[in-house]
Write the structure tokens for this entry.
Amino acid sequence: MNSSTLDLLFWFAVFFGIIYFIIIRPNNKQQKERRLMLDSLKEKDKVVTIGGLHGTVTKILEDTVMIKVAPNIELEYAKTSVQSIQNRDYKQAGGKSGKHNMSKTDKIEQSKENPKSDVLQEAPQNETGALGSSEQ
């Protein structure tokens, strides 16, 4: 092989490496994260769908979930239409300790009952979810 062929192969390898680290690897990481989130869905999770619908999971089937959006109103959605889980961190769902599987409200209740707990205290919020007082 002459040097121009080796140079060409070198630049192809560099180009492929750049494409891999900029496009392919982050996409695989994002897909793995989404799969983890969908596999960790549980009943009573507060979710948001890709269409922006907010609701609570009431039943999980193989490929679908039932989401309660109002009293006596449940809608069936494909599992893949769930965009995010709002009331807990799904990344900690696989933990063995019970402390890692608690929602924010459970953590706050536990910290009130046991002030020496290693659970962080949440900042007080008003009814709109904003931090601090509503007076200005």
Observations:
- The helical segments are 3-39, 104-113.
- Confidence is low (pLDDT under 50) at residues 95-102, 112-123.
- The domain at 42-86 is CATH 2.30.30 (SH3 type barrels.).
